[in-house]
Design goal:
alpha+beta, 4 strands, four-stranded antiparallel β-sheet, about 80 residues
């Protein structure tokens, strides 16, 4: 949903990049999505690439989780 919303905003150069995470019990997984609209003939096509991290255990890897969240936040801070 975030990617689709960002694609509707004024055009920017290059693909749109968004980050997220999901948790199952005490396991965290980070996700990165990159999307762009590609012209193919008369109908544009949405190209979407997803990549994800390994699972991080909240109990033993809280520092790594916090570092990942800080890295993501810095990417979008001017």
């Amino acid at each position: 949903a975030v990617v689709w919303t960002k694609l509707g905003q004024p055009p920017q150069e290059g693909p749109v990049e968004v980050f997220g995470c999901f948790t199952v019990a005490d396991l965290w997984t980070f996700v990165r999505a990159e999307a762009e609209v590609r012209a193919q003939g008369l109908a544009p096509r949405l190209a979407l690439t997803l990549s994800w991290s390994r699972e991080y255990a909240e109990r033993t890897e809280a520092d790594a989780i916090l570092q990942a969240l800080r890295w993501i936040a810095r990417r979008f801070t001017p």
